[in-house]
Structure formats: C-alpha cells, structure tokens
Write a structure and sequence with these properties.
The protein is of the alpha+beta class. The chain folds into two domains: 279 residues, no CATH class; 81 residues, Immunoglobulin-like. 22% of the residues lie in helices and 17% in strands. The strands form four sheets. The chain has a four-stranded antiparallel beta sheet with strand order 9-8-11-12. Strand 3 and strand 4 form a beta hairpin. The chain starts with 35 loop residues before the first helix and ends with a strand.
C-alpha cells in the first residue's frame, strides 16, 4: 500500500500543540500516554454519548433540523468573519469559497437554505462528509455538527456519494475550482471529488473524527459501502488503506485553521463533544501511523542524514534513484520546501532553518516515507 506519513510526532511534540486546545481541563486525561487503536478507543469514550469520561461533558445528540441555527452562529466557523477569506459575513462554504479572489457567489445564512436548485449559487444545504448512504441516514451520525458541513446544494449534488480524492483530468470543475473525476491518488481508480487545498485538512480531520466517534457502530445494521471504496471491515481502522493515506496526507499539508478552532468550540456548545484532531493534531499520526508499515519503501534503502543535523546541509542518499520527490514541513505541518533530487546524494541547505523538529516526506512513484528531522 502507499504510505504518506509515518509516526513522526508524538508525546515529544505534544506541548507544541496545546495552544490549539480550548477543551475543559482534564478532557483528554484518559487518553494520555496511549498510541494506536488504544488511543482511538480512549478518544471514542471521551466524545461518545455515554458518560465514560469521569463526569466531563459527553455527546448530546441534537436534531437534524437544529444544524441550521448552529451553522448561523456568528462564531460557528461557517460564517465568513475571517480576514484570510472575504470577511463578508456570508456562509463560509468549502465548495464555493475562493481563498485567492472574489467568491463566485454567496449564501446568506438562514435565508438561502435549500429548496429547489438547478445551478450553483441558488441555495445551501447540509453536506455529510461521509455520505449518508453509508450509514443509512441514521442518527446521531446524520446530525453530527463536526462531520456535516453547510455547502452549496448544486455542488453537494455534483459530489453525490463519491469519496474524496485527487483529480488530474476532471470531468467537472465547479465555479471555485473543486473537481470531480477519476482518482489519481494511489489505491483507488474510481471517480472522486477533490476540494480546494485550503479545505483538505478540515475535511480530513472531520472524517477522522467520524471514524473515532462511530467506531463501534460501523458494523451494525444499516451500514453499507456498496462500491467498496471507503469503509474497512476492521472497525478499528474504519477506512480502507488508501483513504487513510489520503486523509493523513491532507491533514499534514493543511494545518488546523482559526475557523476550525471556532467550529470545534461551536460544536462543543451545540452537542457537548469535540473533535480531538483539532484540539490535538498529533493524535492523527499517533493513532493511524503506528498501524501501517513502510516495508516497501525500506527495501529501497534510501537514507537521510545527519540526524540530528549539526552541519550546514541535510543529505538525501537516494542510492542512485533519480527524481525522488521530497517535501519538508515544520512541526505545525506547514510546508517550507519541496523539490526533486538532482543527484544520488542530494544536499539541502539548512542554514536558514530555525532550531526545532522538521518532517521530510520522500516520494518515489507510489511509495512514500516520512522522517522526523531534528535541528539542534
């Protein structure tokens, strides 16, 4: 299988992410020190609708119709009050927002609800990031604020029940540049829907939340993956290998944003539970990376040295392989450098880097490896 991210950031870097968290004191205490699927189940018990959390708040499911008012809350994370977007007070819609220019259209909250539509920009409705057909429209999955986003009705219809993925030859492109077409991400060849890069991390963390919150319900009556393209029979893993790889890669290239922090807080006020991967992004790697192997890549014997880096250069020894792609991220998942090796022993200057922890992701065809680099 392809592998995009290995276990790179765990307890060592946990404190660096604590500034994200607005959770009540002790909310995640029962998950402390755990990794892998043990951590996943511990988080499930914290955010479940059964009070196993030592008296802390737990999920209180709401009605499906209540989502409209939750979206319209000024600080919901779905109202565009952000200077990195338009700051226009309209709906912040992952399917119509244009982060780099003027939006193709805008929706007024509590006014432009669907309704009938036959084009983009007519109205907005409720988009289930994991299609409702997979869980037979059951509650509380259907009304879960953390995984049901307000989006343009027409684009929601364009996506239908397709999984998310990456598209290079779209058969449809929306007005904000989202794409539908054959998947080029390794592991699945069917049609998928690709949102803008700006929102990929938001979607990944919401879908991973869903995998935690409902891990014990995936094999119950009414769940069905008719196209066998997303869900895994192992309730611990929840998603198929390729989808885990996709979500992990999106999680790391698009770090937690302010609107996600607001969204998480509003979701907590609305239904009494939180998305752990917004509060603590390191939980993503701590759960799923531990359960995957990079044996295929290891066979290539590619090395990165010295580590820790106590010289001016970081070396990538590709053992004669040409065109090895590399991407470097800082500890917050923000990309700082990318390129392709030009020789067997490729040198990367680190003179301008600050001391700390970095992540280098190496890619060769459909094989991937991620290494934590320490710069003293």
């Amino acid at each position: 299988m392809s592998k995009h991210i290995l276990l790179t950031i765990l307890i060592l870097n946990f404190s660096l992410f604590n500034s994200y968290s607005q959770a009540p004191q002790g909310y995640y205490s029962s998950a402390q020190g755990l990794t892998g699927f043990q951590l996943k189940t511990a988080l499930k018990n914290i955010i479940d609708d059964i009070d196993d959390s030592g008296g802390l708040p737990f999920h209180t499911p709401q009605q499906y119709s209540d989502l409209w008012n939750a979206y319209a809350n000024t600080n919901s994370g779905f109202v565009d009050n952000y200077t990195n977007f338009d700051n226009d007070g309209f709906l912040l819609d992952i399917y119509s927002e244009n982060p780099n220019g003027i939006d193709p259209y805008n929706h007024s909250l509590l006014v432009d609800q669907c309704g009938n539509f036959n084009a983009e920009g007519v109205c907005y409705n409720r988009e289930h990031l994991l299609p409702q057909s997979l869980f037979n429209q059951q509650l509380p999955m259907r009304s879960d604020f953390h995984s049901t986003f307000p989006t343009d009705g027409q684009v929601n219809g364009y996506r239908g029940n397709l999984p998310y993925g990456e598209v290079s030859n779209p058969n449809l492109t929306t007005l904000n540049g989202s794409k539908r077409g054959p998947n080029v991400f390794p592991g699945y060849n069917g049609n998928v829907f690709e949102p803008l890069d700006e929102f990929k991390g938001d979607i990944a963390r919401a879908l991973l939340y869903f995998a935690v919150r409902y891990e014990d319900e995936i094999n119950t009556s009414g769940w069905a993956d008719a196209n066998d393209n997303i869900l895994n029979s192992d309730s611990n893993q929840f998603y198929d290998d390729w989808y885990i790889d996709l979500l992990l890669s999106w999680h790391i290239i698009d770090p937690v944003s302010q609107e996600e922090l607001d969204r998480n807080e509003n979701g907590f006020n609305f239904q009494n539970n939180r998305n752990p991967f917004i509060d603590n992004p390191t939980y993503v790697q701590a759960i799923w990376d531990e359960n995957f192997s990079a044996d295929e890549f290891q066979s290539l014997k590619i090395s990165v040295y010295p580590n820790p880096v106590r010289s001016q250069f970081l070396n990538i020894d590709s053992k004669g392989i040409s065109n090895l792609k590399f991407e470097v991220y800082n500890i917050f998942g923000q990309p700082i450098l990318k390129g392709i090796t030009s020789e067997s022993n490729h040198k990367i200057s680190v003179q301008q880097w600050l001391s700390g922890v970095y992540i280098i992701n190496l890619k060769y065809h459909n094989l991937n490896k991620t290494i934590k680099i320490i710069l003293p």
